[in-house]
Design goal:
- This protein has a 7-stranded mixed β-sheet with strand order 3-2-1-4-5-7-6, with helices on both faces.
- The two termini are 24 Å apart.
- The protein has helices spanning 3-8, 24-31, 48-55, 67-80, 118-126, 154-160, and strands at 38-42, 59-64, 85-88, 101-107, 129-140, 167-177, 186-195.
- The chain is of the alpha/beta class.
- It has a domain at 1-7 and 25-115 and 122-131: Vaccinia Virus protein VP39 (Rossmann fold).
- The protein is globular, with a radius of gyration of 16 Å.
- Bound molecules: S-adenosylmethionine.
- S-adenosylmethionine is lined by residues 2, 6, 17-18, 43-45, 49, 63-66, 69, 90-92, 107-109, 112.
- Residues 39-133 form the Methyltransferase domain.
- One of its GO terms (biological process) is methylation.
């Protein structure tokens, strides 16, 4: 559990990514009916995306390693009277929760992991995603100008979700991530990834 450094980023005012509203990409996908069933927001921060998805009618669990972010998220949920659960959990060990999800949202978490960490993270996501479920990843892209920190190439993103491990990358589209230091957002990828239904055997 690597909570302490992440937690510190929430101690002195909003963190650079904490824009105080849901990401436009998340609002768009929600309005298009892209969420289904039980939803996990992995690395939820102060909860704007989870709160938005819950506000349109879904059962949402937001998890993070930063206790301070979770406390802020819970306060927002209380103030806005939105029913949503926020819990401390490590994205590398999601199976420890003993829960499964039909939709997993990763908004700005994947791109914080280096190449060596990604397989472990993706396996952890696999362990909690229902067969037929969908994973959305919104991450900084390397298609500049004015890229965010730790930008990811389309190829790296695609390669992380291997068909041999039960994934189908349905789409990786150019998008934007709003931050507190980009006027019109930073270049991003929005990936739609499906967890394959097992055919005979089980999806790994
Ligand atoms: C760039 S922020 C994005 C936060 C939020 N999704 C948003 O859009 O505002 C990344 C978040 O992931 C969390 N995080 C980092 N490593 C994590 C891990 N191993 N497990 C769970 N959360 C993690 C951080 O605490 C931070 O809140």
């Amino acid at each position: 559990m690597t909570g302490r450094p992440w937690d510190a980023s929430y101690h002195e005012g909003p963190a650079p990514w904490d824009v105080g509203r849901p990401q436009p990409a998340v609002v768009r996908v929600a309005s298009e009916g892209g969420f289904a069933g039980a939803v996990l927001d992995a690395g939820c921060g102060t909860g704007e995306n989870a709160l938005h998805v819950a506000s349109v009618g879904f059962q949402v669990l937001g998890v993070d390693v930063a206790e301070t972010a979770l406390a802020i998220a819970r306060e927002k949920a209380h103030d806005r009277r939105i029913e949503v659960e926020f819990a401390l959990a490590d994205a590398f060990q999601l199976d420890r929760m003993g829960r499964r999800f039909d939709t997993v949202l990763d908004c700005g978490l994947f791109h914080t992991f280096d190449a060596a960490e990604r397989p472990r993270y993706v396996a952890s996501v696999a362990s909690v995603t229902e067969p037929g479920g969908t994973v959305y990843v919104l991450c900084f892209s390397d298609a500049g100008p004015d890229t965010g920190p730790h930008p990811v190439s389309r190829e790296e993103l695609r390669a992380a979700f291997d068909p041999g491990d039960g994934w189908k990358v349905a789409a990786i589209e150019p998008d934007r991530i709003e931050t507190r230091f980009h006027d019109n957002g930073a270049p991003a990828w929005f990936a739609t990834i499906e967890r394959i239904q097992p055919t005979g055997g089980s999806a790994r």
